[in-house]
Automatic annotation (TrEMBL):
Alphabetized Pfam families for the sequence: Arc
Domain Arc-like DNA binding: 10-46
GO molecular function, one term: DNA binding
Gene Ontology biological process terms from the UniProt entry: regulation of DNA-templated transcription
Database matches in SUPFAM superfamilies: Ribbon-helix-helix
InterPro entries xref list: Arc_DNA-bd_dom, Arc_rbn_hlx_hlx, Ribbon_hlx_hlx
Name of protein: Arc-like DNA binding domain-containing protein
Domain of life: Bacteria
Amino acid sequence: MKEIQRPSPFPLRLAEDVKEEAKIEAGKNRRSLNAEIGLLIEEGLKWREAQKRQEAAA
C-alpha cells in the first residue's frame, strides 16, 4: 500500500490585518485559513504568469 505524503508544515508570518482579511475571505468561501492562503498564493502566481505573458506579447 502506498503511503500518502503530506506537506510539511511551513511557518508563515503575516501582518495581522492581512491574516484577518484572509480569515474573513476563508469564512465567506467556507475554507480553512490554510486552504484560503494556499489558494490566494496559487492565484497570485497564475496572475503574475499571465502578466508576464501579456508584457512579452506587447
